[in-house]
Amino acid sequence: MTDSNAFDIIVVGGGPVGLSCGWQAAARGQRTLVLDRHGFFNERNGTSGAERHWRLQYTQEDLFRLTLATEPLWRRLESLAERRLIHSIGSLWFGDVEVDTNEGQIAETMRVMDKLGLRYEALDVRDIERRFGFTNLPQHYAGFLQPDGGAIDVRGTLAALYGLAQHHGCVLRAGERVIDLAPDADGVTVRTDERTYRAAKVVLANGPGINDLLGPLGATLDIKLYEMALVSLRRRDENVDFPFWFVFQQPTEEDTNLFYGFGRNPWSPSELVRLGPVFEVNPLDHADQATNRPDPRHVRRLTSWVADHLPALDPEPAHTGACLAVLPSDLERQFYLGLAEGLVPHGENIVIYSAGWGFKFVPLLGEICVDLALNGGTPHDIARLAPTATLEAQQ
């Protein structure tokens, strides 16, 4: 093993979390390597699209506290990158306030916001229709506007993280696929399709490919992969804009009946707005099965909802696409985050992050993963998210 192939920390996966790990490990003086199979800035495996929802509120208090801890880290990242990454266009949740969804529940989230002192404005259906242009909503619908929420500039974030990792001396290698890991008491041997590396610690941030590496070690994470439709629509009136919105509805026999939408991106010259259904149906067996094409029925379901309830938008799609969602089978879990200790032999030398809607946590996830690699722990409460956490602990 040559010195050039020996590192303190190797990060597998060069998406937003992997780059955040690479930046923060290198900034702490660690010899760090980030490997990505497809190449940096690719839009496969979940990092597709121009924006992600930024929100502070969560139904689960521990995740809520993690978003509050993440906010100042985003401000630090923006300062270092000298560019705005979070745009506070507002986060509007509305619908059936008691329905449990993969996004949470409105009524319980309002109770937790009250407990933690987060400002918001409660809204009834008349407020939602009058102020935000929705029509023909069921009369029992209600919700809230949290004004600090909004949209994250995905591509700007990736560029900022890549630049900071590079600035601190992190080695960034694209187009190199990790084939297997061999952990032992002193570290981990990492074999790729090009060479063999050695590291004291490894961080697995490779999303849907994580079981390809854990499986040969005798463990798998209970995750599911879905292709979800992305639809861009034209505004009928250029003076009309929207906050981020998410509608909570009772599921149908065919799907979860959940839809979301963004306003016009402040950083983009495009006048289009992006919407999507959040349908966790028809899971893929492997990420390589992804077609990058939306299910036509899902597109029709979304555009039909828009035609019924959002007259400010032309329901005829201007563009369609798909993104890969990697989610825990148990929605109570939200993420897998922690050491692989007790999961695989010598798992104390492997840090795992996988699954969930994690972009809003990117700076914090990098910090936590590096904490775990260097110290074996973190001051943040992630016990419920550990790969070995029991079902009772998750709840």
Automatic annotation (TrEMBL):
InterPro entries: FAD-dep_OxRdtase, FAD/NAD-bd_sf, MTOX. Its cofactor is FAD. Pfam families: DAO (PF01266). Signal peptide: none annotated. Keywords: FAD, Flavoprotein, Oxidoreductase. Residues 8-372 form the FAD dependent oxidoreductase domain. PANTHER family: FAD DEPENDENT OXIDOREDUCTASE DOMAIN-CONTAINING PROTEIN, PEROXISOMAL SARCOSINE OXIDASE. This is Sarcosine oxidase. It comes from Streptoalloteichus tenebrarius (strain ATCC 17920 / DSM 40477 / JCM 4838 / CBS 697.72 / NBRC 16177 / NCIMB 11028 / NRRL B-12390 / A12253. 1 / ISP 5477) (Streptomyces tenebrarius).
